[in-house]
Amino acid sequence: MDRYVIIKKTIKTKFDEFMDHGRILYFGAPCGFGKSTVAFELLRGKKFELISGLETDGILPEIKLNRDIVVIDDLQQFQEDEDLQKLNELIRDNPQKKFVLLSRGGVPGVFRAFQYTGDMMVIGARDLLFDRDDIRKMLFEYNIKLTDSEINEMLKESIGYPLGVVVTLQCINHADSQRVFNSDIVKEAYHEVFLYFEAAIYHRFDLPIRRLLLELASFDNFDYELARMVSGDPSTSELLDWIQKNTTMLLYDGIRQFRFWPQFRDFLLWELERKYSSQKKNAVLVRGGMYYELKGDYEKALDCYSRGKDHSKVSEILIRNGESHPGMGHYSEMEKYYRSLPESEILESPSLMQGMSMLCALNTDYENSERWYHELEQFAAKCKKQDAVLRQIKSRIAWLDISLPQRKTDKMIQIIPSVFRLITNREVKLPPFSVTSTLPSIMNGGKDFSPWSKIDDLLYQTMRIPVEAVLGKDGVGLADCAIAESKFEKGEDISGRILLLVSQLGEVQKKGTPDIEFAMVGLLARSQIALGRAEDALRTVQMARERFEENGHTRFFHNIDAVLCRIWLHMDDLERVQVWYREKAPKDPLHLNVLKRYQYLTQAMAELALGMPDAALLTLAPLESYCRECSRYIDGIHINVLEAIALYRKKDSLWKEKLNSALDAAQEFGFIRTISVYGAAVLSLLEQTEYKNDDEWFARLIKDVRVEASFYPDFLQPHLSMENELTATELQILRLICADKSNAQIGQIMDIKLPTVKTHVSHILTKLDVSRRSEAKTAAKRLWLIPDDKN
Question: Where is pLDDT greater, at 55 or 441?
Answer without folding.
Answer: 441
